[in-house]
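discrete fold record:
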Amino acid sequence: SHGTLVGFVVMIACNACFLLPYTANMKGMFLGSGLLGLHMALTHSITISMVASYMPTGVVPGIGRISGTAVSFTDLLLGFVLAASNGVAGMLSDWTASAGYGNVGCFLGGATACTVAGILLIILTKFGDLGKQELIVGKVAKGKA
């Protein structure tokens, strides 16, 4: 979860690059785009590896192998979440533009969402089952099952 927290901090910095007036230039745009790529590398890869670590590696009776299906279902859910969050970002951008602040609402919303997600990640890791080693499915060596 430390890598994910770092990813959230990187995304907040990325939003700041697009939001703040002194980075509203070509260098700021390239820096923000690079930070966005780093954020995706840090968070999406960890999300997929976490899904894979909690999925059974063998055949589940009555279902079959589900590891690939779980990753695909995760990507499907991420697609729905991205569609909804883009709608909210558009509404926030329209709201700040109509208030005279420019189209910065989407970046403020993104930074706020990353901050809330980071706080929730810390809480769920400390007090919940997230990251508990006993819940992670171990790999079974071939021929030893």
In short: Residues 67-98 form the longest helix (32 residues).
